DNA sequence: CTGAAAGCGCTTACAG
DNA sequence: CTGAAAGCGCTTACAG
């Protein structure tokens, strides 16, 4: 049913070699007569020939596919980066396989193994918490790899992160400049370096302004059941510091939940409070038009991830197994 | 560097056949001695053998991969369905390739061709407006295919949609029951059957309640630059019908934009207005806690899409080229 | 200007 | 109980 090179070769009484060369655009280079080339193209079109990319990949060792693993495809940050990566990869002639790890370490490891088995040329991953085993294997094998959003300082890998500390610092500084002095931080997953840095930026801004880093203004929320836990954390903060006058949210998810809290408690958060959040979603334009938002450089992340990965892939092709030195990028957020 | 079946066979002085059988779990069935099996497993583990799935697929004609094409991966509806499909596919032993068509017909066609070239076993697609050529080809070839969200009545395909007319009717009925009588509809892409059905449901509810279907309450927004166009549509409606008392949004995207409008104009939409929307996003819980929302049966869509697709795939394997009759599903939304 | 042959890494009748 | 061989659909030296 499906037509193959062989079918074309047989109908035209040519060799598969010739057909393959013509179809892959090497006709002129290989000095194949225009007449023959024309015949081949004609026949291919007529039989509706579609090359079997699997066979090609098996032969060349190049799949033309890169793998992307993100914690959650429904998270607006990750899905936007995914789109950016898809567009960039496509522009470079690569296709993309996307998988969610669901923040489960075992899923992440499984996905990496799957990608390798499917012979993807390289992998981009926003690693989940403590993910290690398979990422370590990738590093050991010199498999083209780019991490983003999170990274492991003890591992020699390419990575792209945002300037978590600096962005947080700038956000909190703006809140202070606008008059806030009792600024709470609502954060999660403190074991993540990412979150640590955000907390540090927050603290630096406070200290610089001679404000205390008050533990009573620290709201930490476990990620499971975060809906409920955001409420608890806010209850506590309002209990201990009733005149709190600012909130710094380390993620948009926490902020959205907090807005639900404010709404339910009848707190008009857009009046008398300073707000800040890392990463913005469209609902914020309505919910809190004045919130200070550090906008993620989505396009930059996507473009650079693909660029670095393809660089590694190319390098590896040319210097079999040679290991290129890693590239690390700390991108600034755009601030108000 | 990478170990293959051959490497194991050679180190163990066995044939590739034996090794392949053992590793694919057919050792007992083929009567291979436990001693040999043990040796093979040992060696595979030691050499860190990972089968090349490309080679297997080329041989068996089964890639174990299904392709998914959605208009926009950053849209919360589509990304949630994507996640549901990914989970369900994985549970069935399939992996998933996701691509966005970006609502561009040429991209969609290209993606379908790519999927075929990569030999995916079947394709799930939420088609874009007028997409046809390649989908028609798929149908003609009997390629396993499931459409969702949108479909083409003139084509014999599996599809899963929600009950657009019924859900819209129910939503508008609730608004009327709650006292609204001048209900505007804000909609887009009127050439889509989906949107047409939603408008028809809206009209039926009005007519049933002896309310006029007032053209002045009809707000149609082109999808490009919809931000701006939502504002224009609302301006017009308020201009012509100042005492409008309800808004039915046919998509969450339009509603979000409208909330921005209400906010900017200082209209307290949660007071004196009835609201309804097809598909809910988390921000609505804060922006409009009383809005009537028809919740999409995300899990149902995902599960059924995979079930139907795998059914087709299996059927086709067993009856080469036989065409199974198509399955069409109209799922209800859950209503308030 | 064109072709025969080997090989990518698997699986699977067929044979003993 | 195990193996030699063909084949999936390509690409690419090598040869003429």
From TrEMBL, chains A, B:
Gene3D superfamilies: 3.40.50.2300, lambda repressor-like DNA-binding domains (1.10.260.40). PROSITE patterns: HTH_LACI_2 (PS50932). Pfam families: LacI (PF00356), Peripla_BP_1 (PF00532). It comes from the Bacteria. One of its GO terms (molecular function) is DNA binding. Residues 3-60 form the HTH lacI-type domain. InterPro entries: HTH_LacI, Lambda_DNA-bd_dom_sf, Peripla_BP/Lac1_sug-bd_dom, Peripla_BP_I. Keywords: DNA-binding, Transcription, Transcription regulation. Signal peptide: none annotated. PANTHER family: HTH-TYPE TRANSCRIPTIONAL REGULATOR GALS, LACI-RELATED TRANSCRIPTIONAL REPRESSOR. This is LacI family DNA-binding transcriptional regulator.
